[in-house]
Structures are given as structure tokens and as C-alpha cells.
Fold these 4 entries.
Entry 1:
Amino acid sequence: MKQILVVDDDIPIGDMLEETLRRAGYAVRRAYSGTEALLEQEKERPDLVLLDLMLPGLAGEDILPSFAGIPVIVLSAKADPEDKVGLLLGGAADYITKPFETRELLARIAVQFRQNPKGAKEDLTYADLRLDPERRCLRVGDRETRLTPTECAVLTLLLDSPSAVVTRSHILDCLSADSADGTEASLKTHISHLRKKLKEAGSRADIEAVWGIGYTLRGA
């Protein structure tokens, strides 16, 4: 059964969404603030998120990047095209303006599940590294290190082709497809942060730069 996380502090709207979704055959979890939504995601990754923007504490825009890899449909009263464009470019899969028809919402959810079939990603291993892409968790022995969505994406590319050179252009193309974070300068920063996390975790692996081409992951 597909699991949907409803993030909305408006209890009547949340109750309506929960009833509608359960009748449609979905499992539903609730969060009433941005912080609570992040905690729920840490417990278990949902298959899809319905995200309000006006939340107590952390706003919807603030927590959107934390749901990388999960389809997020924004439900908001904000109707300005600039708001919609910014959120869609920032990682949202869809945007529905409140008030909305529940039939339209269910149709858009069905489209997301058709486009993003759920499939558990296997851990990636190399040398003493083990990466859990679902949790964005890097393990070296008993030590666990959390990665940002972009760091996880970069390390996944390197782990897909260990010891081979992955070109900068390929990495940047992959990053640009998911976010606006695909620039040369930002890539260097993410590589630097990854190197630091590998070292702090006690790994013998390192990311080496291949001048003029890209990067490679070495196990010793």
C-alpha cells in the first residue's frame, strides 16, 4: 500500500485529505509543522508528500529539499505564478492551488505514482563504504554520517563506477536534472564536503580529481 505524508497544520483540511486518501486506498501519516514533517521522514520515507507552505516553524519551502527523491505535491493558497515556478524548479513534482477538487488531487497523485514507481534502492558499497541512498546515510564500519541530497547524488554517481573517472559534465548534467545546484563552483564545494565527511568517518577511500576531466573514487 502506498504511503502518503500529509503536511498541513490546518486540522480540518488535513482530516479531509486523510479521509479522501484512505478511501482511495492509501496509507496516511500526518505532520502539523515543518519540523514534525522532517521527523516523520526520518522514521520512514513516505512514497509521496502533500505539502502545505504556511507551516509553524520551518515553512514548506524550507523543508522541500529534504524530500529529494520523493514526489512532493505542494498544496497552497498562493496562486502567484512566480511562487509556482520557483517551487517546481526547487524540487516540487506538482503544485495545486487551494481550494481544489479532490478528484483532481487524486488524479495528480496517480500520475506521480505512475511516473515514479516505488522501488527500494539497494545499498551501494565500495572498499569500506556503504551508502544507503534512501536514507542518504553513509556508513563506515559502525559509524554513520548523514549526507545532503546533493552530496548523496554525487557519491552515488561515483559509487556506480568505482575507480573509473566520472566526468564533471556528467555529474553536472545529473545534478541539473534534479535541482539548480549544478554549477562548477557548487560541485567543487560538494566534493570538498564529501572528502571531509569520508575522512571524519575514518574511511580509507578518497575522491581524487582528474585534472581537466572529473573525479574518481579510490579505495586506498
Entry 2:
Amino acid sequence: MRLDVPAAPYYSAGAFFRNTDIPVQVIHVENSQLYPEHHHDFDEIVIICGGKGCHTIGTRNYDVRRGDVFFIAGGTTHSYTDLEKLDYINIIFRHDAFQEDSIRHVLAKLPESGIRLNLLDESIILSIVNRIDRELLEKKFMYALMAQSCLVQLICVLVRSGSESSMESGSGTASRIKAIMNYLENENGPDIPIRLLSEEAGTCTRNFHRVFLRFAGVTPTEFINRQRIRRACELLTETDKTITSISALVNYSDSNYFSRQFRKITGFTPTEYRNSSKQNYK
């Protein structure tokens, strides 16, 4: 669900869980406002979907952007500042609704700063979130149990992703590849040969592909294409530029090839996506 949640120093579970049989809710926050220091008596998983900002826990500051996920235990004081079009999803839940405290124990394994999802895990996580949303909306037989089961599945994917990343992060090549991934994200998929990226990572092209695939869940070429299409989606929504102009701005010299890639990744043509976005904002 999409809610306009006003800034407040404290949020009570009673305001969000009016039906005590439903232990989980999903809240989509778009173009977020500043949230000063606050706390709540429920637990929260936050998935950053777009934009960037600063997440503060106590006296520690963490920069966050798309792909970052973190866990906030009930009672923890935190805040959001320095926001630039920050979009995120809050999965809030009452840990006391579970038969044992194992859920919070497992989530405690995540670092306070959160983890960065690769594209594959991000896709899996968002599909689970959509399933929870759908169960809560449609309210079919045993929907509460289904939503709770999906929450457990989501937590397992998060903790597994976090543990795999921490085990592999010690490698020098891995660190350089992560830096390259950050660069490709920030530059919206620049037009750079994979060979040069491999050299920058200090490894051969074959090994670069192998390690990159393990971290990102997709090949370097597909990763670059997805960053370009992500930026194209923003331009289609926020500007009136032509499809050909947007194609060039996201480093596609052939607008027809751009349209094919756009449909392959989003399921829509650029025109269909723009029209759909305008309908959603009416």
C-alpha cells in the first residue's frame, strides 16, 4: 500500500496493524520527505528502490541508494536526511507474532549499515514483496499465513545474500569489481568495452565475467543495459524528450536497438512505458 506517513518521533504498531491477525504490512514511500529522529515498536526491513540519502542510526551515518537493504529492530532510533528523490519500501512486521524470536535473531546477522543486493537478488526480493502486497490486497483464503510465509522467504534471501557478499568481499579483484559496479550505476551504463573494465579490475576478461556474474547476478553487458534502461525510464517519466533523444542520452546509437532492449527488460516499448507512467501520475 502507498501511505503518506507524516514525520513523528514515534510510530505505534497499533496504527498500522489494526487487524491483529496480519503481522506484516508493506508501505511504498516515493520521493520521500525528511524523517527526523524517530523510533517504533515494530520491526522494519527497508529496501531502497531509487534516489539516495543518508540513513542515521544513533550517531552513525550511512549513505544509501538503490539496492541497499537494512533492518531496523523495534525501539531503534534512526532518521533520514540529505534526500534526493529517495524511494523505498518498508516491510514492517511485529516480531511477537511469530512463535519464536528466530526471525529477529536471523535478521540481526545483517550488518547495521545494511547490504547491497545484486540485480538477481533484488529482482527476487521485489517479486516476494509484490506477492505480499497481492495477498494483503486480495485477501484470499489463508492470505495472512501466505503473507507471513513470504516474509520468512524474503528474510532468508536477504540473510543469504548478505552472508555470500561478506564471504567474497575480501578478494582484491572482488573489491575492484564492486567499485566498477558502483561506477556503472552512477554513470548510467557508460559505453566502455568489457575488455577495459576487465583491465581496470586487474583480471582477465573470462575471470571478470565469472566474478561479476556472481556479484551482480547478470553478465556485465546485461548489467550495463539495465542501468541504461533504468535511466531511460526516468527520462521517459520526467521529460518530454523524444525516444531518439533518450536513446542517445543513455548511450544507444541505434534507437531501434534501444527499443528492443527496453522491451526485453521492462516488458513495454518506450512509448507504452511513457503513456503508462502518465496515467499513473494522473
Entry 3:
Amino acid sequence: MISAHGRKKDFPIFRKKIDGKDIVYLDSTATTQKPKKVIDAIVAYYEGANANVHRSVYKLADEATELYEDSRANVANFIGSKQNEIVFTRNTTESLNLLSFTIGESLRKGDRILITSMEHHSNILPWMRLEERGVRLDYAGFDDEGHLNIEDLKSKLVKETKIVSITHQSNVLGTINPIEDIAKIVKENGSTFIVDAAQSVPHMPFRVREEYDFVAFSGHKMLGPMGIGVLYGKYDLLDSMPPFNRGGEMIKDVDFHKVIFEDPPVKFEAGTPNVEGAVGLSAAIDYLKEIGMDEVRRHEKRLTSMTLKGLDDLKSVKYYGPRDPDQRGGVIAFNVKDVSNVKRKLEGRNIKVDHFYHSHDIATFLDERNVYVRSGHHCAEPLMRTLGLSGTARASYYVYNGEEDVEAFIRSLGEIDVQR
């Protein structure tokens, strides 16, 4: 269970004081803090089982290989896949680039790829590079509250659409897209369906479905270490794909002019893998399993609901995305209106000025109160342009946050009025 105060006691970083005050960490959408169980698992690996995997016959290497493959099995169990359908990568970004440089290479001039206007750059740029070859990149839009426009998606899903790659939850709007319904629509069209689950696998129950061809997510966003990511792929698809990188580990046989590659998933894991990262990710999954993903989602929804109510009471704050906590995750992007006397005087002289304080200024103001939020475009510039913004500040929650963090956030934002 997660109490109203969160689970900070499990996370060593929250023992840290800055200027004698507690840290209010509200940037889990970017990266999460690590529980002691994860840190201990990584230390235990290096102190007791460090060796290269798959390649040696001595006992220590066998133990390292067993830990690595057990971690793969734990990831597979967590999302309901087979063990040989889990490829370890560096992060979601590398997983999506892997797909761009493998299945993407089969696309030809006139083919289309469909994504949405709320995607992270990691689910835009890998596909955008294919436009140089005459592949068209289409974007499905969203409504004024940040809900994906399903009718627009359907209208842009045509017979030439070979790939559809969509975020399950927006890292800015917080919108939780109806991914299961979308998957059925996509498969009826015969397109390959990819789920960017970087913001959903860590925060809610998630199981792969027959309609999902590929799923990508990152360890560091779910209490695991940085530098470890996951690509789930149906085995027959992985088996038919060319490798992404080439080198040691991923071959069965090499002659001077001929190579036979290993079977998936090893075929996609060239070189020495991040064994430490896999072990740490597995420990993070164990920690989340102990809590239960239904409980993780319930807790975040409670904090999000509390936050939205608090922001509604601050007339100078505008937030983005669905108003219903059931339809969004624990991330809130917002701006603060500039209603200063200087602004009013300039507008009185017909001099146009920005309607909002710069998001970096808001983040700096909150930082001075040990409240840590993100600011900028959040690697989603096309989305910001759609909203007519240069950026936003962004608060996001996880299992270690409690109601006192929400109260500190709302109270600190309220102090901006006093500063004017």
C-alpha cells in the first residue's frame, strides 16, 4: 500500500536536506528516484556476480548470465509477454530508433506512418528521417482538452499507412489514450502497431495484447537505473527483422564474408549488455509488484485530483490536458499568467507581451522553495506549437510523493501572487 505520505522512507535521496528543508521532487515523468532495494541489487551484482554474460563457462559468468536472463523473464512476466520477446536497449528512444532502422527500412516512397501531435520527440524524429525517402508522416490531432481525436486518426489511417506509433500517455498533457481501442482500429487496417509506453508501464497496470506488435519503455522512469530500456516485439516479427547493431554477442557464426546471426532477442543486443541495468530494473519491478500497479495508479490519481482542485483555486494558473483524473496520469503541465503592473502598462500602449511568465522563471521560483518541477518544451515542440506555447512548467508524481508534496507545490505557486 501507499500511504497519504507516500513511500519516501524507501528512497535514500529523501534523507537529503537542502538549506535545512526537505526535497519536494515533482519531476518523475523525466526520471524517477531509486529505492534502496534497487540500489542494493546493483551493488550486490558488482560485489558478488560481475562478469560478462553468455560467453564464458566459468561459474561467475554463469551466475551473471542467470541474473541477466532472470531479469528478462521478470520484465516479460510484468507485461505478460514471452521471455524471448524482450529486447534490452538503452531506453525508449533507442527502442524506437531500433524499429525505425529495421522495419522502417522496408518502407518505400508513397508509404505512410501515422503518429499523433502529442508525441515525444523520440516518437517523431526516428520516423521523420524516413521522409527523405518519400515516406509521408501523418499526425492525428487532439481536442481543446487534450483528448486524442479518434475520428481524425481514423481519417488519416489509409491503406498506405504501414506503421502507426502512438504514445499511451502524453508526457505533457497527461492524456491516457484509449490504446486498446486504437490498436483494434489499426490492426483492421493491416498496419504495424507500436506503443510508446514510457509513461504508462511505470504508472498503471499494463499487459501486452495480440494487437500490439511492439511496445517500448524505459527503466529509469520506473524506479530502475538509467541506461536500460525495453523493446517488446512479437517473436515472429523480431525473427524476421535485421539486426540494429552488429558486433560481438549477437552472432552464431562469422566467416570472412558471411555471418549467421543469433536468434531474438540476442540478435538485437550487440556487445556487452547493461547487466547492472537489467538487474536494477528487475529489482524495481519487484518493488512495484509488492505495491501492486492498481495501487500505484490509485495513489497517483488521488494526488492528481488534489492538485487539479488546488490549481483551480489559483486564478493565475492555467493547466493543460483532461480535467478528469480518470483520463490522465500523474503529470500536470501548467503556466502562470503574468498580470503584473508592467505588463498592463505595456498592453495599454498596444505593446504585445507574453501572456505567461517564462516556465524557467516559474521553475526557478519553485526551486527556491525546494519544489522541483520541469520547465521548457519537454521534448514535445510540435505539441507546444499546436498549443501556441513556447513551453510550460510541469509537475509529476510517483509512489514516493504524498499529499504534503501537493500542498507544498500549491502553496508555493500561491506565493507568486504575493511577489507581484
Entry 4:
Amino acid sequence: MVYDAWDHERHRLDLALRYNRKLWSVLLASVTSDQHPLPGEVRQNVANLGLFVINQTMTMLTTPKRENLHALININRELAAGLLGRA
């Protein structure tokens, strides 16, 4: 993982960040659709979180700092855990 081996794996950072941005863009497109079954308030919260993630991802692409990755990693892990029913 890039975070754990920052000095040796930074060349993978752009790839990981671009993938993360694409993933969240798909999630945002889905959750903001009027056809999405989640309640509006939940959809809005997920959309707000998605916008935060995309903004943080863009910041990391332009100004990479190891300590700023932690928030993105935690959000992605928590979302994955929730989707898997482990939250």
C-alpha cells in the first residue's frame, strides 16, 4: 500500500488516486439519481461525503502529502465495511 511504503511506492499514488476518483464518481452518479432507493437525506449525506473525497483526491494529486491519505483510506474502508455489513 502506498501509505505504508510512501518513499518506495509513491509512483503508484497517481494510479490509486485516479482509480479512487473514478470509483467515487460512479457512486455519486448512482446515489444522486432520482431512481435511487435510499431516502433523500441519506443520499445527500453520501453525496456530500463523495464530494469531500473527490476534493481530497484532487488535492492529493496536486500536493501529495502522506498524512492527508489517512482520511481517504479511512473513508473507503468504512464504506466498504458498511457495504459488506461489517459496520
